[in-house]
Automatic annotation (TrEMBL), chain A:
UniProt domain Aminoacyl-transfer RNA synthetases class-II family profile: residue ranges: 109-314
EC number annotated for this UniProt entry: 6.1.1.20
Reactions it catalyzes: tRNA(Phe) + L-phenylalanine + ATP = L-phenylalanyl-tRNA(Phe) + AMP + diphosphate + H(+)
Entry keyword annotation includes Kinase: no
Source organism phylogeny: Bacteria, Candidatus Collieribacteriota
The entry's keywords: Aminoacyl-tRNA synthetase, ATP-binding, Ligase, Nucleotide-binding, Protein biosynthesis
Record-linked InterPro entries: aa-tRNA-synth_II (IPR006195), aa-tRNA-synth_II/BPL/LPL (IPR045864), Phe-tRNA_ligase_II_N (IPR004188), Phenylalanyl-tRNA_Synthase (IPR002319), tRNA-bd_arm (IPR010978)
EC class: ligase
PANTHER family on file: PHENYLALANINE--TRNA LIGASE, MITOCHONDRIAL, PHENYLALANYL-TRNA SYNTHETASE
Protein name: phenylalanine--tRNA ligase
Taxonomic superkingdom: Bacteria
TrEMBL record, chain B:
Domain B5: 285-361
Name of the protein: phenylalanine--tRNA ligase
SMART domains: B3_4, B5
GO cellular component entries: phenylalanine-tRNA ligase complex
A Gene Ontology molecular function term of the record: ATP binding
Organism in which the protein naturally occurs: Candidatus Collierbacteria bacterium RIFOXYD1_FULL_46_26
Swiss-Prot/TrEMBL cofactor(s): Mg(2+)
Biological process, per Gene Ontology: phenylalanyl-tRNA aminoacylation
Keyword list, A-Z: Aminoacyl-tRNA synthetase, ATP-binding, Ligase, Magnesium, Metal-binding, Nucleotide-binding, Protein biosynthesis
Length: 333, 617
């Protein structure tokens, strides 16, 4: 009897290993635990044994039956459940990618920049997108008839009066007009221009503006924050070029370029053979702007800077068509 | 601005390579715009402020100052033999306010012919084709000094006058390029004998142009209101070299050196004699001065520049120092610097010529000002995070849409395309477009959201509001419930599908979208998502209601509202049609140890009577 038990046990184990489908498992059940199954038959022989043998083999046979039943049950579970059960055992198989929610690339970049400036003690400012000529042009030292205020570049809502803001500088004049210095503020925001949509331009775009007004602010402070900011954006090794550039709302004005990372300053198609790529405009806030906003330029000085975000977002995320960035054709997972 | 190096080197001796010269110009504010090539011409980006940077001399002057080299200008021509008649040969009359100056000279017995090589090669390098010696001289001086000049054939002048006046409707002019232009009263023109000969400051007519046969000419140099030139040229769609100068602010004094230079070149190259003619110049500008305080220079630059260096820079840029004391300098602004208005502009010039590369970087050391970030900004970022955590994708779509029948919609006055001329009044349509785009590509079960502004007009008020909109092909109510739960806000949906919190509408819901107004939500929300620090073994009871279809969930809530009950939450797990009624499966939850049986009885009774609802508990 002992030998038979051992034989059935080992045959069962090897048979079970061969089972890959529920049908095969049913057959296995019948083979061992069915009416004519080997285990059942062995159990049937039990009554023919002596009382002392019954006491030895009874529990052993019962154990065998129970163990086979539970093994079949386990196997059945394994077979009926999907493959993931198997997969969870094989840790070398890569998992399936499940979709998650995404922030818009522009939001991601704005957050990164905000983080940087928050650490430097800047607040985040906001303002209206429907703006009037006063805040969008006049207080920025752009008098009537200035070429930058041309009708063909601006989306007007009411002639000579209301428009869609053409830059985030309008938020600068609003904050300077309503808050007292000292001020350190950055303004990310949507701006508008009268342009036909193309792969590189849309009639709205994102700008990132920053300004500081306090006593004793000079152009060296501007150079310092812009150096750190560009190192934060492009890495410590980035080569910068600071040059004079005219902007009506600042004097002295300053343009900032980064060395082209495709040609390393030699000049290529990407940088239009300049060796550098223009990234930002800045300067010391024009005394006329401060005055127009009710701030005495003989007591307070300040700097301002502004940059377009879209080109930067597109570069960082490898997007070649701006219409995809804002037209909703971003392919997320 | 194109700078042929061969021409530039007429005014300063510089032995740098073209690349190095371009680098210097870039530092000065004239960035290299086009790639350097073998032609020896620098193409520099020009900003609209500096009209003198549209002249080779203007650029050379700045470069000479930057490189600390002497500037060599054309010699003045004071020794010219010039006749002055008691009566001008051609009478000049100006009948428009847009003319600041109109100076003329008359030449007789000139020999029109080809120009010498030095002249044609400079013009050609700049990009102007040689016509004849007279026209070439006017073009040369325009590029050299930045002052446009115009020569007309005296014999072809219809009258004995040049009258500048507004054009009359119906008048026409054929330009030197052969284009017919219809004139109107917004355009001012030069006429002679009553006939139009030139569109003022924009383009000359073919009728009086100088040709091989010309022997007598009248040369003029005008100074006009740049804003009018800008408007008129854009309207007539004429952009040429003359316009690109005249649409900037030029000083009328620029006419003096330019006219004298042109006169001596004409006499040199074409011979003949010159007579002074009329010079309409009603208000010659007075020299302007500015005071530079050393303390201001130090304040803005953070530098203590040596006084001799500063004075050297100012003089090299043609400022003249008229007064000096220990604390300041008074300087006269050179007439051609129409961009210089305030003391800080002088400082800009000084720092520019001193090279921005030489400015140190100094970290801010002033105390950090108080934080003025709007609370809403942070709140919206929190909303973004919560929605992303729920698997929604953020999108940013255009604020401009196609014309809307909504009479509160704001239409733009000027827009390039008619499908982009109205400000959006909802974020939902454009998000649904995107959803449709995704569906087309087999991406389903996607939720999208946008946080942005929408616009509307109420009477003469133009309003903008911040919206959050979520669109999804899935059951939208789950997203809203989850979001509101995490914000700790209890809400209900009204019969008109408004999202209501404490009797206040904070948004709206539709079959596949909902919109929330973040500014109204902010004061209602809890700063932190609710956290339960211990397990509360709350009791819950299910209730299955068979409701006639004329009622909705909001009616159930409305019926229960007046009761004083202690249940914490009520949750509608499902609503399915069952025969002629709808089966609502509700779950009520009470705190531990509540008398749930009594309350559920009360609820049942109320609902049965109030809404004639059949129920089974």
């Amino acid at each position: 009897m002992q030998t038979q038990i051992t034989q059935i046990q080992s045959r069962f184990t090897s048979d079970l290993d061969q089972v890959h489908t529920p049908t095969e498992l049913d057959a296995l059940y019948l083979k061992y635990l069915g009416k004519k199954g080997s285990t059942t038959q062995l159990l049937g022989q039990l009554k023919e044994l002596s009382l002392s043998d019954k006491k030895i083999y009874g529990p052993l046979l019962n154990q065998l039956k129970q163990s086979q039943e539970s093994q079949i049950k386990d196997k059945s579970k394994l077979l009926s459940s999907d493959v993931s059960h198997l997969l969870s055992m094989d840790l070398t198989i890569p998992g399936q990618i499940k979709p998650i929610g995404h922030l818009h690339p522009t939001t991601i970049l704005i957050r990164e920049m905000n983080d940087f400036f928050r650490q430097q003690g800047y607040s985040i400012g906001e303002g209206p997108e429907i703006e009037n000529v006063e805040y969008n042009f006049r207080r920025l030292n752009l008098p009537e008839g200035h070429p930058a205020t041309d009708l063909q570049d601006t989306l007007f809502i009411r002639e000579g009066d209301l428009l869609l803001r053409t830059h985030t500088s309008s938020v600068e004049t609003r904050i300077l007009s309503s808050q007292k210095p000292p001020l350190r503020v950055v303004v990310p925001g949507k701006c508008y221009r009268n342009e036909t949509n193309s792969t590189t331009n849309t009639n709205f775009f994102y700008q990132y503006q920053g300004f500081v007004v306090d006593q004793g602010i000079n152009i060296q402070h501007l150079k310092s924050i812009l150096t750190e900011f560009h190192q934060f954006l492009f890495g410590k090794d980035i080569k910068l070029r600071f040059r004079y550039k005219y902007y009506p709302e600042v004097t002295p004005g300053m343009g900032v370029d980064i060395e082209c990372n495709f040609c390393h300053g030699k000049g290529c198609q990407i940088c239009k053979y300049r060796g550098f790529i223009e990234v930002l405009g800045s300067g010391m806030i024009h005394p006329n702007t401060l005055k127009a906003c009710g701030i005495d330029p003989s007591i307070y000085t300040g700097f301002a800077f502004g940059m377009g975000l879209d080109r930067l977002v597109m570069t960082k995320f490898g997007i070649t068509d701006i219409r995809k960035l804002y037209g909703g054709e971003l392919i997320y997972l | 601005m194109k700078i042929p190096l061969i021409w530039l080197k007429d005014y300063l001796k510089i032995d740098k390579t073209p690349r190095e010269i371009a680098a210097s110009f870039t530092q000065l504010g004239l960035m290299l715009d086009k790639p350097l090539d073998q032609t020896g011409v620098l193409d520099l980006e020009h900003r609209m402020d500096r009209s003198d940077w549209l002249s080779i001399i203007g650029c050379a002057r700045d470069l000479a100052a930057f490189e600390n080299l002497p500037l060599k200008l054309p010699k003045p021509t004071s020794k010219l033999k010039q006749k002055t008649l008691s009566q001008p040969e051609i009478a000049i009359r100006v009948q428009t306010p847009h003319v600041r100056r109109f100076a003329t000279k008359v030449f007789h017995q000139v020999k029109v012919g080809p120009s010498p090589r030095w002249l044609t090669e400079r013009l050609l390098a700049y990009g102007i084709k040689s016509v004849n010696n007279i026209v070439d001289v006017t073009n040369f001086v325009m590029v050299e000094y930045g002052q446009p000049l115009h020569a007309q054939d005296l014999a072809k002048l219809p009258g004995q006058d040049i009258t500048i006046r507004a054009a009359c409707a119906g008048e026409k002019l054929t330009t030197i390029l052969g284009t017919d232009i219809k004139l109107d009263s917004n355009v001012f023109i030069l006429t002679s004998g009553g006939l139009p000969t030139v569109i003022g400051g924009i383009v000359g007519g073919v009728g009086t142009s100088v040709t091989q046969k010309t022997t007598d000419i009248i040369l003029d140099a005008g100074n006009y209101d740049q804003r009018i030139i800008r408007q008129t040229s854009r309207r007539l769609k004429i952009i040429n070299e003359t316009v690109s100068h005249y649409d900037k602010y030029l000083d009328p004094r620029l006419i003096d050196p330019a006219l004298s230079r042109a006169t001596s070149l004409i006499l040199e190259l074409a011979g003949g004699t010159v007579t002074d003619n009329d010079d309409y110049y009603p208000h010659p500008p007075k020299p302007q001065t500015l005071t530079l305080h050393w303390s201001r220079l130090q304040l803005l630059s953070g530098l203590t520049l040596p006084k001799p260096t500063v004075k050297r820079i100012l003089r090299a840029l043609d400022y003249s120092i008229v007064e000096e004391d220990p604390s300041s300098l008074v300087v006269e602004i050179p007439y051609f610097r129409t961009d210089v208005e305030v003391e800080d502009d002088l400082i800009a010039d000084i720092l520019r010529i001193n090279n921005y590369d030489n400015l140190p970087a100094l970290a801010l050391s002033t105390p950090i000002p108080p934080d003025i970030t709007p609370e809403l900004y942070r709140f919206e970022d929190r909303l973004r995070d919560l929605l992303v955590a729920k698997g929604a994708h953020e999108h940013i779509t255009s604020s401009l849409t196609t014309a809307s029948p909504d009479n509160h919609a704001i239409t733009l006055l000027s827009a390039t395309s008619s499908d982009q001329n109205t400000l959006r009044s909802s974020l939902v349509p454009s998000l649904q477009n995107v959803l449709g785009y995704y569906a087309k590509h087999g991406l389903k079960n996607i939720a999208l959201f946008e946080i942005g502004k929408v616009f509307s007009q109420q009477g003469d008020k133009y309003l903008e509001h911040r919206h959050l909109s979520v669109v999804s092909t899935q059951k939208i109510a789950d997203s809203l419930s989850t979001l509101m739960h995490v914000l700790g806000i209890n809400y209900h949906i009204s019969l008109t599908y408004q999202i209501v919190v404490k009797q206040k509408t904070v948004g709206a819901i539709g079959p596949h979208f909902y919109t929330l107004y973040p500014d109204l939500l902010l004061p209602l929300s809890q700063a932190y998502s609710p956290v339960v620090s211990e397990f509360l073994h709350s009791q819950s009871r299910d209730l299955s209601l068979l409701v006639p279809p004329r009622y909705v969930y909001a009616d159930i809530l409305a019926a229960l509202n007046p009761l004083t009950l202690t249940y914490q939450t009520i949750n509608c797990k499902s609503a399915t049609p069952l025969g002629k009624v709808n089966n609502y499966l509700l779950t009520f939850t009470w705190p531990a140890k509540s008398n749930t049986s009594a309350e559920i009885k009360q609820i049942l009774k109320t609902l049965k009577t109030a809404l004639s609802i059949d129920s089974k508990s």
